[in-house]
Design brief:
With 1016 residues, the chain is of the alpha+beta class. The chain folds into 6 domains: 140-172 and 199-303, Orthogonal Bundle (Transferase(Phosphotransferase), domain 1); 348-378 and 390-521, Rossmann fold, CATH 3.40.50; 523-596, Serine Threonine Protein Phosphatase 5, Tetratricopeptide repeat (Alpha Horseshoe), CATH 1.25.40; 599-706, Serine Threonine Protein Phosphatase 5, Tetratricopeptide repeat (Alpha Horseshoe), CATH 1.25.40; 708-809, Alpha Horseshoe (Serine Threonine Protein Phosphatase 5, Tetratricopeptide repeat), CATH 1.25.40; 813-1015, Serine Threonine Protein Phosphatase 5, Tetratricopeptide repeat, CATH 1.25.40. Strand 5 and strand 6 (122-127) form a beta hairpin.
Length: 1016
């Protein structure tokens, strides 16, 4: 059967056009006889094309005819384009591959391709319907304000960057192919379609946007689109074409565009000049490169808007249409051609149909079954439908769920669980409405979907809750309550919950025995509760701790007796570098209010007092652990799929050193919501400690797919930096575009990835943003720390130490590690680092001072520092192993160093134990000892395992250069000169700007020269 020939055929999938559909269509078009350039006959309203009913014609162009149509299966309006194919379609494998990439494109700045097919009227494409106007209509009115022009260009560049990364080039980018919706979204239209259907240049297109290589029939690539965007940006800013003579056919002569002058936007004119370079090699490489250059300009305009007037040479905008004859008719023709490709929010039936198609095709089955050993009634709750215009009423959903989950007979699906299943089904996940709730509830095994709404009649709030039996697709009951004010709505939630539970066959006694007054247990203020929920999401799901702290402080300003907000704020103060006293005060406030909390939150607070007490608790630690684990088992039985319970359970196991149990709990939490950045961080750390690195990337990739925020992208970039540098660089740059100052960990991981993949200047620029501009002083100090590490990565120890000194001024020094000494030792071969020794000797007594003095060549000072150490203690064992290695007593050093590495495997993650920080130097010393004792093969295995994915930690940055040189010596001894050269080249690339006089740098260059001769 031909693609799309029967009614309802097409992808119909929530994930878009089915694989191969567009390629099949192109093949059929290529094989079909007939005149390819014939003008399509107009279709009358009511004409059926597959499942699409034509409503009206919107416009015609060189590529085809656009109709507004109704998708009768999904119940939504779409833009249906009957394509006029060119002389060559699907002519080779490259076109077919690009066609499939086109079908997979999915990005907020690209128009969505819903379906493709072929009918007796010809091949057709089905797009989302957009409401608004084309950019052509905007620029025909004259130049845009600078800030608006840059914003449009940034959004277009985002779409280009996504498509270019997928291997798709537009080739016909121009203002009439860019749409600005009524909601301000910028969408690029017809991406790659003209080329796929054999029309490299559209008749009637605007030649002024064509790149020189297109006129000369030279190869086109991403830089062709960059040129077109440059013309568009020039015209948006000035109102003129850059090359009006010859309508863009400037490649035949020496024409250059008049220089733009854009006050208040430094760098913008130079960027446009580069985008308009005649030779493609002179332009930015692709959309991502343009985006990276434009985004900082847009950011600067937000803070200091440029002069909104147009450049001096720009023509004035006509005062009326009468002053610009022909303009109205031109706009009308363009509007008629493209007005149909407009966004219309999918009707409820559309999302339901998408879910039904996914269900029928077996999609979304990755959702694990509900854990429900007690056979409770599983209930899903949709978000409140709120037509009052009062945004704070969005908090009602959380209050209702909290109230209902006190029941012993109901099992509530959490919001994270529902959002994850929605994403699996291709349904909207940000807002769970009735349609999405139906699909999610069915897939997740819910018996009932509760659908709440809130209206306002005069001053009275009316709340209605309908219960849908998902198995029978019938409404079981409806309950309604009213309130006279916002404050009364909280008590209304209690009544609504009680009545709902009784309707779901709980007795009044059962309801009374397991209920909570949410106004007293959580907050009497809807606004405070909304800030609390937002703050918790910012911490757990966005890892934006500074923004999260602000939200919790706002919650407490509105309700000082909000116990859950006190607990969250206590955690955040510690994360953000605040004082222990301030944090402890909030923990204690939370514990005083424990009796008012709902059961789940109350039990977590009580158990957390035993897990991580802010003040010492008398009693046996093992007995405390047993008490915690009993309570944890009860919590998990009561709330088996609550991601917060699972997250906290993982933390409890982690603190008690039970790694496998912690990993199991965290992974169950990720099954509920795979995008939780804090949980993802703990899981990846645990997998690395358990020597299961192959499992890390799948966790990170799913996290980015579920929640592509700055933190998840940055961690993926860091993990990919050593093996897939191109993707790592792309993810790092995307992360930096998304990151806020509160996401300092994301900025650091992305910077680390860029430094590792060979872009240290970008890394420094990113981290300097934190060090100089971060709002909170602890975050700024962290930025200076990170800049010091970046200097160490680049082989600049004196600069690194000076930078760290800036960060350390006025700050409590870390009692476990003397970072400045480590920085000063960078690049010192043979364990001779006099500056590091001087720093250590002049500094405080730190736990591992004796071992570090031995490492850096001060045997006398090391012995003095080791004298008071307890024999067999971690610090004493560390000292003895390092001293044996430095003194080349291999028989003693090798087993001692192996023992230290084995000990590291039992150190809990995230509990402040300093030993893991010394992992790299121990592996380096063990590799050296094995090499010098004649065991080169084992030395290589140890040194290979000492390769960090990214050079993010100070210890990794400081010792990895020595590891590379030692590994190169090992490769040379094993007869692998090419591998040795590879390691040396990596070091020399990292140290291309190293400060002079580093002994290790000189050794690496000498060895490389020697091996280069040998390799020849």
């Amino acid at each position: 059967m031909r693609v799309g020939e029967s009614a309802g055929e097409g992808s119909g999938s929530p994930r878009g056009v089915r694989p191969g559909a567009l390629t099949d269509l192109l093949r059929q078009v290529a094989e079909a006889p007939g005149v390819r350039e014939a003008e399509p006959a107009p279709l009358l309203p009511g004409t059926l094309i597959g499942r699409f009913e034509v409503l009206r014609e919107l416009g015609r162009g060189g590529f085809g005819v656009v109709y507004e149509a109704k998708d009768r299966a999904l119940g939504r309006q779409v833009a249906l384009k009957l394509v006029r194919p060119g002389a060559a379609a699907a002519e080779d494998g490259k076109v077919a591959r690009e066609a499939e990439a086109i079908a997979r494109l999915s990005h907020p700045n690209l128009i969505t391709l819903h379906d493709v097919g072929r009918s007796k009227h010809g091949p057709y494409l089905v797009f989302e319907l957009l409401r608004g106007k084309t950019l052509q209509e905007r620029v025909d009115d004259g130049p845009l304000p600078v800030q608006e022009a840059v914003h449009v260009a940034v959004e277009v560049a985002r779409g280009l960057a996504h498509a270019h990364a997928e291997g798709v080039v537009h080739r016909d980018l121009k203002p009439s192919n860019v749409f600005v919706t009524n909601k301000g979204q910028v969408k690029v239209l017809d991406f790659g379609m003209a080329h796929a259907f054999g029309r490299r240049r559209l008749s009637g297109g605007t030649p002024a946007y064509m790149a020189p290589e297109q006129w000369e029939d030279d190869p086109e690539d991403e830089r062709t689109d960059v040129f077109a965007l440059g013309v568009m940006l020039y015209r948006m800013l000035s109102g003129e074409y850059p090359f009006p003579e010859g309508q863009g056919r400037w490649s035949a002569g020496p024409a250059t565009a008049p220089k733009l002058e854009v006050p208040g936007a430094p760098g913008l004119a130079e960027l446009v000049d580069r985008m308009l370079e005649k030779a493609p090699k002179g332009r930015p490489r692709d959309g991502a490169a343009v985006l990276a250059a434009l985004a900082p300009i847009e950011e600067s305009l937000r803070t200091e808007p440029a002069d909104r007037s147009a450049p001096a040479h720009a023509p004035r905008r006509p005062a009326t249409l009468d002053e610009a004859p022909g303009l109205a008719s031109a706009r009308g023709r363009l509007a008629a051609l493209l007005a149909g490709v407009a966004l219309l929010a999918a009707l409820p039936g559309a999302a339901w149909y998408l879910w039904k198609q996914a269900s029928d095709r077996g999609l979304g089955t990755a959702a694990p079954p509900v854990v429900n050993p007690e056979k409770r009634t599983v209930v899903a709750v949709a978000d409140f439908a709120n037509d009052t215009g009062e945004k704070q009423l969005g908090a009602l959903t959380g209050l209702l769920v909290t109230s209902l989950e006190q029941s012993r007979k109901l099992l509530l699906l959490t919001r994270g669980r529902m959002a994850d299943v929605a994403r699996q089904l291709g349904l909207p996940s940000e807002a769970i409405d009735e349609v999405t709730g139906r699909g999610v509830g069915q897939r997740a095994g819910a018996a009932v979907l509760l659908i709440p709404t809130v209206h306002k009649l005069g001053a009275t709030y009316v709340v209605e809750l309908r219960a849908l039996d998902l198995a029978r697709d019938q409404y079981r009951f409806t309950v309604k309550e009213t309130a006279g004010s916002q404050e009364d709505l909280i008590g209304l939630i209690d009544r609504l919950s009680d009545r709902t539970r009784e309707e779901l066959r709980e007795t009044p006694a059962e309801v009374a025995s397991a209920r909570v007054e949410v106004g007293k247990a959580l907050s009497h203020s809807l606004e405070a509760y909304q800030h609390y929920l937002k703050g918790r999401d910012l911490r757990l799901k966005q890892c934006d701790n500074l923004a999260a702290e602000k939200e919790q402080r706002r919650a407490l300003d509105l309700d000082p007796e909000f116990g859950a907000a006190h607990m969250e704020l206590g955690v955040l103060i510690l994360y953000n570098g605040g004082t222990l006293e301030d944090s402890t005060a909030h923990f204690q406030a939370a514990r005083k209010l424990t009796g008012r909390l709902p059961e789940k939150e109350r039990r977590i607070v009580e158990l957390d007092t035993l897990v991580t007490p802010t003040v010492p608790i008398p009693g046996d630690r093992q007995q405390q652990r047993q008490q915690v684990m009993i309570g944890l088992d009860e919590l998990m039985a009561r709330y088996p799929q609550d991601e917060f319970v699972l997250y906290w359970g993982g933390w409890a196991h982690l603190v008690f050193g039970e790694w496998l149990s912690a990993l199991d709990s965290y992974r169950r939490s990720l099954e509920v919501d795979p995008g939780q950045c804090y949980v993802v961080s703990f899981v990846t750390q645990l997998l690395e400690r358990l020597d299961r690195p192959d499992e890390v990337l799948p966790v990170l990739r799913r996290a980015v797919e579920a929640r592509p925020n700055a933190v998840n992208r940055a961690r993926l970039a860091q993990a990919l930096a050593g093996t897939q540098p191109e993707e790592a660089t792309r993810q790092a740059r995307e992360s930096l575009l998304l990151a806020t100052d509160g996401q300092a960990s994301a900025i650091w991981s992305a910077a680390c990835a860029l430094a590792t993949t060979g872009f240290p200047e970008e890394a420094v620029t990113a981290e300097r943003r934190v060090a100089v501009h971060a709002e909170a002083s602890p975050i700024r100090e962290m930025g200076w720390d990170h800049l010091a590490v970046l200097a160490a990565i680049r082989g600049r120890p004196r600069e690194a130490a000076a930078g760290y000194h800036v960060a350390a001024t006025g700050r409590r020094r870390d009692p476990n590690i003397n970072r400045r000494a480590t920085l000063l030792a960078v690049g010192r071969a043979g364990h001779r680092a006099p500056l590091a020794v001087a720093e250590l000797r002049g500094g405080p007594d730190i736990l591992f001072k004796s071992g570090e003095l031995a490492l850096y060549g001060d045997s006398q000072g090391a012995a003095e520092a080791a004298a008071p150490l307890t024999p067999g203690s971690p610090a004493e064992l560390h000292y003895r192993a390092i001293r044996a290695a430095v003194e080349r007593r291999w028989g003693e050093a090798i087993p001692a160093l192996r023992h230290l590495l084995d000990e590291l495997k039992g150190v809990p993650v995230g509990t402040g134990d300093p030993r893991p920080a010394y992992r790299w130097e121990i592996q380096l010393l063990l590799g050296e000892a094995l090499l010098e004792s004649g065991n080169s093969a084992e030395a290589l295995r140890v040194l290979q395992s000492a390769t960090p994915a990214g050079l993010c930690g100070l210890q990794a940055a400081a010792h990895f250069p020595n590891i590379l040189v030692t590994r190169a010596r090992t490769h040379e001894r094993l007869g692998h000169p090419a591998d040795a050269l590879r390691d040396l080249d990596r070091l020399l690339a990292l140290w291309k700007d190293a400060e002079p006089g580093l002994p290790l740098h000189a050794e690496a260059k000498a060895m490389r020269a020697r091996l280069a001769v040998t390799a020849k």
